[in-house]
Amino acid sequence: MNSENAFPIGTLGQKWTAIEKRQWLEQTSVKRSYFDEVMPKIDGLKNDFDAFHYADLHYDANPVGESRYPLWALKSKSWSANKPTVLITGGVHGYETSGVHGALLFAQSEAKRYQDQFNIVIAPCVSPWGYETINRWNPDALDPNRNFIANSPAQESAALMKMVKDLDAPILVHIDLHETTDTDELEFRPALAARDGLAYTKGSIPDGFYTVGDTEKQDDALQKAIIDSVRKVTHIAPADDNHQIIGSDVTQDGVINYPLAKLGLCAGFTDYTYCTTTEVYPDSPKVTNDECNRAQVAAIVGALDYVLTTL
After folding, report:
1. Cross-referenced SUPFAM superfamilies, in alphabetical order (predicted)?
2. Contact 75/52 with Cβ under 8 angstroms?
């Protein structure tokens, strides 16, 4: 694939207008159901958590999928101002399946044993339209995970930021669950280049799990604890020949760092002490969907077990 034919919509070197964005939207399709696959799992956790409806996404002119998506989160029943708060987010990129179901599996299987030490709030599917259409963007051709900024134009990002602000609780730990998939290079990065009028240069997808820390608050010990926990479930992504993963220098086995807040990333919008972005590789022949979900759980467990040693 080269830059000249990287994406079928738009003209090389020209940014998309509303016409191209509409063309892109109309070629998407619903492939699975947020209401059938995610909402019942949230409902099933209401005995263990306070489930709360924090916003609605409205896409009234959307020809694909629903025009309204209710956003739900789970909150510890034993919430106390005397406990530090942990925020777990999944499905910021809706197509990244284990981010959604890994967050829900943690709530179901492991969260109870941490609720005496932490307040826990889980937003398992921040981008339900993206979940249904298996898409990185929202219907406005915006990436929610580049729009955690003031006056965000992405409804998903703005809704989550408001929800966290309304909690009125300092966030000690923020764990944002993601995946890196083959479609990042086959579809989503070519689309991004086309949308922004840029040439597409093909990259590579690492085979394995890795984390993204914050260059502004680098915490090598936290990231190592996560990697050590996850390697019990799945393999860790190796560095490439340039000692990088997706173009960023590897600081230790399976770890890179980004300037999270500067890039408008979800993991960077809270005034956290500890944070990580997880990256599972679901397209590897070495893993199953269940292993991907369990890798996300292992990442959360590794992070929280480490933080407990620092309190």
Report:
1. Zn-dependent exopeptidases
2. yes
Predicted TM-score (pTM) of the model is 0.97
Phi and psi at 279, nearest 5°, equal -140, 105
Q: Return the pLDDT at 293.
A: 98
Closest CA to 255 of 275, 272, 283: 275
pLDDT in tens, 269-307: 999 999 999 999 999 999 999 999 999 999 999 999 999
Q: What is the 3-state secondary structure (H, E, C) of 114-127?
A: HCCCCEEEEECCCC
Residues 6 or more apart whose Cβ sits within 8 Å of residue 302? 225, 226, 227, 228, 229, 230
CA distance 95 to 89: 14
Tokens of 44: 């099933």
Q: 215 pLDDT exceeds 60? A: yes
pLDDT digits (tens, 9 = 90+) for 177-208: 999 999 999 999 999 999 999 999 989 999 99
Joined tokens for residue 283: 């397209």
Tokens of 34: 């947020």
pLDDT for res 44: 97
* Beta-bridge partners for 174: 87, 275
